[in-house]
Write a structure and sequence with these properties.
With 209 residues, the chain is mostly helical. It folds into 2 domains: 49 residues, no CATH class; 145 residues, no CATH class. It is built from 7 helices and 5 strands; from the N terminus they run βββααβαβαααα. A hairpin with a 4-residue loop joins strand 2 and strand 3. Helix 2 runs parallel beside helix 7. The chain is elongated, with a radius of gyration of 22 Å. The protein starts with 23 loop residues before the first strand and ends with a helix. About 27% of the residues have low confidence.
Length: 209
């Protein structure tokens, strides 16, 4: 019978396993390791580092790893646009007229209105975007995805409700380039909310007190 293997701390500094370092960590149980991406503890059994390699190749982990590499840049660029571009404030209301640059943003005061809450989502956009016609870029798509995720969080929607939302938007808005490239699913919604949006807003809150 093969012997039980144990977590070796040298794996975290061994250049041969450097690709695992961003998410691999030890845990109290030396017969297991923890994946920060999947938020999961996995047994090493009798195969040692091979168990780590096998975990890195499963579909869910690969999807989350790819998502992490995109979130690190996309979230930052969304909330921190280039200083070289002039900026203006635009709201994202569910309904109502389009707000022009430099026009005060009117919000509803009706108690319990989800529209009032949604219309308070503000973000900085480069002024040049106001002149761009019906056009979709990665920035437009990311912006739309984050707006939708903010709406989900604000309305206390389940992350599972995002499972087929991309397909639905493509059917509903077949003439929209942004909708055709919109990418959202339950795992992505959960990951971006927890590891992208939450840390950003926590940092903003901490900096304001």
């Amino acid at each position: 019978m093969a012997k039980q293997t144990y977590f070796d701390q040298s794996w975290l500094s061994d250049s041969r396993y450097s690709k695992y370092c961003p998410w691999l960590e030890s845990c109290d149980d030396r017969t297991s390791f923890r994946c920060r991406l999947c938020v999961k503890t996995i047994k090493l059994s009798n195969i040692g580092i091979t168990a780590v390699k096998s975990h890195s190749e499963i579909r869910k982990h690969v999807r989350l790893a790819a998502l992490q590499s995109g979130v690190d840049t996309s979230i930052a660029s969304f909330f921190h646009p280039s200083q070289s571009s002039s900026e203006l404030l635009l709201p994202v209301p569910e309904t109502g007229p389009v707000v022009q640059p430099n026009q005060p943003v009117a919000t509803s005061t009706t108690t319990g209105s989800s529209e009032a809450g949604t219309s308070n989502y503000l973000t900085k956009l480069p002024a040049s975007r106001a002149k761009v016609p019906f056009f979709s870029s990665d920035e437009d798509r990311i912006r739309a995805e984050i707006y939708w995720l903010l709406h989900m969080v604000h309305s206390h929607s389940s992350f599972n409700s995002a499972a087929r939302i991309s397909d639905l938007f493509r059917m509903m808005f077949s003439d929209s380039t942004i909708a055709q490239h919109f990418q959202m699913a339950d795992d992505k919604a959960r990951y971006v909310a927890v590891y992208g949006l939450a840390p950003y807003f926590a940092q903003q809150l901490a900096g304001s007190v």
